[in-house]
Amino acid sequence: MRADLLTDAVEGLDEALAAVDGFDQVLVGGLLRPQPAQAVGLAALADAVAGSPLAGRVAEAAEKTAAGAADEDHYLALAAARSALLGSVHDALVARVEEAVGRPRAEEPAATADGAEHPVNLLVATRGWLCDVARAGWQGIDHELIGGAAPVVTAMLPEPGLRRLATLLDGFAAELAASCPGATLERMPVRRWADLWSRAMLLTLPGADRAAAVAEATGRLLPLGVDLHEHATAVQAQVHAVFEPADGGTPRLVRAGVSAPKPDTVVGAGLWQLLRPHMSLLAAVSEGRAMELDAMPVTAEGDLIWDDARATQGEPAEPFTTARVALPTAAAAPVAPVDRHPARIAVPVLLEGYAVEDAGEGVAFRVAGERLAVGTGRVPAAGPLTADAVASSAACLGLLRWDAGQFLLQPLAVERTVRKKAVAVHAGAWAGGTADKAGVRAEKAATDAVDVLRERAGRLLRK
Predict the structure, then answer these.
(1) Cβ neighbours of residue 40 closer than 8 Å, sequence gap 6 or more
(2) 242 in Cβ contact with 251 (< 8 Å)
(3) Distance from the CA of 358 to the CA of which of 8, 65, 76, 250 falls in 20 to 30 A?
């Protein structure tokens, strides 16, 4: 890997992010009665997209908002401009990563399928709440305002096509509620909340969540590792893998995800108990096995729509062997326009022959003379992989990400030498169950917590 390309400056990147940051600061104070400093941030956002098809609408939206006369369509235009800027940053960074790792360039996205018709009133209600939040700003939020999301989420959940937006809205509202009142906040996740707000705004547009065209995948799936995402109200496991088509076509990078709602008391290894019943692939990850797929639905973006009935356990497939043999020639899938964001970048890579640096600011790898930060804080507690294991490793299989203005590596697994033998440690080793003593203890504690919650829920239902 050409690590020097990951440290070189990307032209236009700082300017685009500065425009995004300026608008994000506007949201802190709210859009109801913008101050002169906020007007500057709005004008900078409009200037940043002046050469795009959005130029006219965003310029009008910035002017109306600065004057305190904006409506919901103007707020939507501002959200679209912000998302377009971050999409351009995403594309520039992905191009740099592809050059650094030397992988085949992704093909253009296939045509999208028609999206299902959703109740327009729910989308309008969602947009109305989001606009109310934007008018108040993060400093003006209170429990009464944030509580307005609850009935909208409740009404959306029965609609399968709206659960993506409902989950986003539910989690966003929960974060805001935990920070109320906004006037007392000393620190706030400005970029994150603006990300969630603008994405939710775009998803209120009919057709914005239009499903990508779905094909069928038949062949061998070789897991690389599991990326676990945890929130107070939900958990998701995303398995990154190489798919080898049965017809001998080009290997592809794919993902298979499974999500579940969760109470905030279930943490650590207990998360796997919520996910296992929904995906047999997690057991294959723990056992180091491939899976044979038969007509498994897969989107143009490389997301497998998992169906246990279309998958069977295959032969042993060690992830590091997969990374050394199959990963270098696997083509990455394209990314849908609505999903283009720097935070979404997660490119599987294998690093070997690096030097480990630990200067008190966290672990870093010295690769071909360049320093690459390692995101050990992203390693989940629901597995045996630790920062110490990463620091003593000789090989690392991970996801190349971009965070806080730099590329960093999120470890999925490492190889370290123990008694002169190479031993692999995987973050997802407990995904399908484990005999490891630490894992068994963590599972037992989680099982007790889940049993208590189920017993209490049963009492409530019997009343």
Answers:
(1) 22
(2) yes
(3) 8
